[in-house]
Each structure stands twice: as C-alpha cells, then as structure tokens.
Amino acid sequence: MANPDRDIQQSQSVNPWVEGLKTLGVSVILAFGIRTFVAEARYIPSGSMEPTLLINDHLIIDKVSYDFKNPQRGDVVVFNPTETLEKQNFHDAFIKRVIGLPGDKVEVKNGRVYVNDRPLKENYIAAKPEYQWGPVIVPPNSYLVLGDNRNNSYDSHYWGFVPRSRIVGKAVFRFWPLNRVGEVNQHPNFISSQPQQQ
Predict the structure, then answer these.
(1) 48 is catalytic
(2) If you placed Cys at 169, which of 29, 63, 107, 192 could pair as Cys (CB 3.0 to 4.6 Å)?
(3) Catalytic residue among 27, 46, 48, 142
(4) Around 139, how many Cα atoms within 13 Å sit in the side-chain half-sphere?
C-alpha cells in the first residue's frame, strides 16, 4: 500500500533549478517557433524608408499572412537579398514598399511613379524622385519595391525585382520608440484616378 505522506514528500523535493531549466527550455522552443513561423522583431538600420520608418525603429514582422495571400501594392515588406544582391555581398534582409505587382508596368519620370500609366498619389514619400527609370514590366512571381526615401534608397530601380520566394513577411507594428508606437501604414490609397497625360 502506498504511503501518501511519502508521495507528498517526494513531490516537494523536486529541484527548483531543474524546474527552472525546464521552463526556460520550453520558453526558448516556443520563442524560436514563433520567430521562425509566425512573427519576429526587426529594427531599421538605414534611412531608406523615411519618413515612414526611421533609423532604429523596431518592428514586428508578420510572417504568416503571405502563406494565405500574396503581397499587395502598398505593403511594407521584409525580404532576403535577391541573387543580384547576394553577388554584391549583401546578406542582411531589406525592407521596402511594394509598388509593382506581377504584370504591372512601372515607370518613374517627371518626379512621379506611374503604374500601368497611372501616376501614384504618394503622401508617404520623403521627396519626389529625382530620377527617370523604366518603363519595365514586373515578371511573374516577382515584385518591384521602392524605398519611401526615393532619392536615398537602394531598391528595385537599381537591382531589379524581388522573387516571391524571397519575401519574409510584412511590417505590421512599430513597438519602439515609445513615442512612435503603432501600426505601420498598409495599403495607402495612392492610385490617382487620372490616367497619364500624353
């Protein structure tokens, strides 16, 4: 017959260090799983997305949504370097705004970006682009991305398109600094209703 007093005594003699290590181990596994499959934190190391994102802004990146839908025009996305960027010894992820979707015609001229011959109405950029570029057609399963700081961004107009497979996720929330906490603007209403004037 079991001795109930002995059972109680054994359960109370569990080493708190062992329990602490078990808890820590489970926490690490959960954190790794969340970071790998669901979301992760990133910070902004450059001014290429100003004024939307500033240097040292810390963001939450949603890594799940694109398992169910494709990136949309206006999404601020994090992506791993393309083959072209890897050949230039870039290894860290980039963050830019999706401007051109697969099949879109994109052109930059006269201080405006045109998508399918319609000028974008962009109230989020630092300044009008001071360069001419395109027109180009975005290939299948690829995206054209530009920095909001158009004249100080190493983006698609330099090195080409981002394959869908390289996109890690989209920036959804800024959690630091505290005075800038909030959602990262998604899907701005930026397509002009006026077609390009010839």
Answers:
(1) yes
(2) 63
(3) 48
(4) 8
Domain range annotation of the chain = 41-183
Handedness of CA 147, 150, 155, 160 (dihedral sign): positive
Rg, C-alpha atoms of the chain: 23
Q: What is the pLDDT along the chain (198 residues), one digit of tens a residue?
A: 555 444 444 444 556 665 555 554 444 444 444 444 456 788 788 999 999 999 999 999 999 989 899 999 999 999 999 999 999 999 999 999 999 999 999 999 999 999 999 999 888 899 999 999 999 999 999 999 999 999 999 999 999 999 999 999 999 998 888 888 888 875 555 555 444 443
Report the C-alpha gap between 63 and 49 in whole angstroms: 20
CA 119 to chain centre: 24
Q: Is the pTM of this model over 0.85?
A: no
CATH superfamily of domain region 41-183: Umud Fragment, subunit A (2.10.109.10)
